[in-house]
Amino acid sequence: MSPHPAISHQIRRLEEWLGVPLFHRDARKVRLTDAGLALQVSANAALSDLAAACRRIRRNAAVASLSVGCIPSIASRWLVPRLPDFTERHPEIAIRVAYAKAEDRLKDDDNDVLITLGADPSPNAASLKLFSRMSRPACSPHYLARKGRLGSPAEIAAADLLHDETRQGWREWFSQAGMAGADVGTGPVFADFN
Fold it and tell me: Residue 123, SS3?
């Protein structure tokens, strides 16, 4: 297959300017000469440097962005309420918040930051503990006014319990409160307590 005539013309002009042939031309194929190979190596390096410079220029010209993957409970109760303050202090940074699951780990090109459960063992990831996983019973003031005092584990066990993903969280809490084997009831199980 022969190159386009305009390309062939430019190659011939380059060979004339250099004073050496860049290709061995046989009847059916074209191969680089030693001079052609040397020029190819230098041209590839120069084009790689040029491509890298172009990427840096585009990245610097683009709006800075920060992509945060976050589990919904932390997003709604901790991250989102803090975003107005962050964007006021850093208006040049565009924020993207994406849903993350508890078992997600940081991957290249997905998120810059991942707020989820546990340390991330991924290479090149740095983990920072933000919150303890301590569980505490909680109820609305309206429920408390209707039900009355809930000051002991036994009184809490008699309440209408809501469950986050499984009933296991309440089982663990009652066990730590000295009531292992307490009946955690049949209250609703929510996939996301929000």
Answer: coil
